Amino acid sequence: MTSVVLSSTSKPAAERIRTPWSEFWRKFRRQRLAVASGVFLLLLVVVALLAPWIAPYDPATPDYEHILEGPSWLHWAGTDDYGRDILSRIIHGAGISLMVGFLAVTVGGIVGIVMGLLSGFYEGWIDRIIMRICDVLLAFPGILLAIGIVAILGPGVENVIWAVAVFSIPVFARLVRGSTLALKRAVYVDAARAIGVRNIILMVRHILPGALPSVIVYFSMRFGTSILTAASLSFIGLGAQPPTPEWGAMLSAGRSFIGVADHLTFFPGLAIFVTVLAFNLLGDGLRDALDPKLSQV
Amino acid sequence: MFRYLINRLLGILPVLLLVSVLVFAFVHLLPGDPARLVAGQDATDRDIAAVRAALGLDRPLWEQYVTYVSNILHGDFGISLKTRRAVSEEIGERFFPTFWLTLISMAWATLFGLVIGVSSAVRRGRWQDHGGMLVAVSGISLPSFWLGLLLIDWFSVRLGWFPTSGYGTLAHFVLPSITLGVGVAAVMARFTRSSFIEIAREDYIRTARAKGAFERFVVWKHVLRNALIPIITMVGLQFGFLLGGSIVVETVFAWPGLGRLLVDSVSYRDYPVIQAEILLFSLEFILINLIVDVLYALVNPEIRYR
Fold this sequence. Notes:
The complex is a heterodimer. Chain A is mostly helical. Chain A contains 14 helices and no strands. Chains A and B meet through helix 6, helix 7, helix 11, helix 12 and helix 13 of A and helix 1, helix 6, helix 7, helix 8 and helix 10 of B.
């Protein structure tokens, strides 16, 4: 399926040069929701990087004269039970959520990709062992696996990253294995092998690029899922601990004020929702642009 | 069919073995001495030695594993460190609240997902489709704990229609099952739509249309029936998702189920309960997948005879 992307898009070299990249861009641009999501996420990254400068207040300094105030011109998202500005805390929390999501998917993705390449390329016993490991990892529902890992490592943001990374591994491994199985029989891989290219080079330079389109789509989708899972772990008290301005932890701290000061839970939850939604919409758009079989549908 | 069933049952044995080894290894992976963990913070060295001997932690690992598995097979999961009651009792009490919650959520979510998915697929490319799919992708992205808190805020605190938390009457089920089911309904809607569209392009559907069958008949009789096969698989997979989701939702609604027990025992470091819970959740997940595979084979003879 992925080899089709490369061969079918590089076919007509008529008036304009059509590289796979320009073809992708042409299709992706038409998905307005996905483009908007991408722009939003870029902005969010900028906001997270510039948080100390653009946040109107310090996220940690209490202000006991403005406790539990609703949204106002001074505090756009209100203040919490310590009088801390919620918008500032959300801005500072953006970096934490994006970082956790990014590291978790990257670690899980790299391990999964290596396992998938080895599994699909060599087949035989390596394949069987790796696929059994994936079966077992998939035998636990994601968050349960994460809770088990946090129970071993202890609560905290760093441990949540490992916990969330682990359940991305089997997804990437299976995906890359499938592509590898198909691509390693391609003529250009045979040709490379015939001129004596080493196995590791075959895998990394000749097979992996063919699997990349689906890896990118999954990367975006898992990014959202990872942020959601990390926030869930913080919410049930196993992830980031207060006073860290992590979105899930903020929601957890604010839940005792439901019915009294709803903005404590509303705004952090909205931040999680919008961010995860943007990653999922981006993933959908990437899939439609990168996978011609699906975009025909 | 019988041979398929046997094969499938034999196939889960290695997974069961690995899961049991992992869960057994769990206590030994924890930093620190398991005997000290079990004895508690302010235990003396003599207490710890006594605990070690009582739990058989001084014997070789493989022997401990064999004892562990044989105890489990006899329904003995050890004693909770927190309540000092048998873990099997603790879990037994909390099984049904989670079971009913999961089942009710699954039922409405599947029904809803199917309806949205089919109506999107039938009106592909029109506003019903775009609207339905936008709702679905939002449902997937919605943090369940946030939705739960919003529902409590609106329907319990402000309107007073449903209890804020707890377990007992049917009214207690409404908000938690909505919260738990939304994600599943969304996934089901997306999946139903794509498998429906895929089946609708098959030759036999064109044949049905060509021979002049009514459109509604084609949709319900031919397309949906064939699309149901992958959908059944998806329902099974979503059960695992629900089991995981129940952990969060039960925390929001103070539901006396397995999920909240797990969270409580992780915070309390109640290892025997954590071990038993992880084992139970995995077993359920494996069992559900098995049931799905069997159902799948029942509706699709191709798999049975492979």
